[in-house]
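Reopening this one. Same input as before:
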Amino acid sequence: MRSDKASPQDSKLLFLLGVLKDLEGQHWEAQAYHRDGLARARGDRGLTVNLALSLAVSGDSGSAIGRACGKMQQSRYNVCESCY
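Same output, byte for byte:
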């Protein structure tokens, strides 16, 4: 099921579909859903964190850390040593 047929503007639906795909082990597809959601809801913390988690689980820890640290810096909760 592609989300653009259900509701192309619903970032919450894209968030949930991304989580579902990660649980199914389909990380590349999950990341696409998270990125689509972020294109519609820029800066959404849930989508950003889930994209970072999906990247980490799929083995792309460098991108995951960059994504998570960027979000922490924006929210002024800089708790990641890699961000310094």
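So the earlier flakiness isn't reproducible anymore. For the record, The chain has a mean pLDDT of 77.
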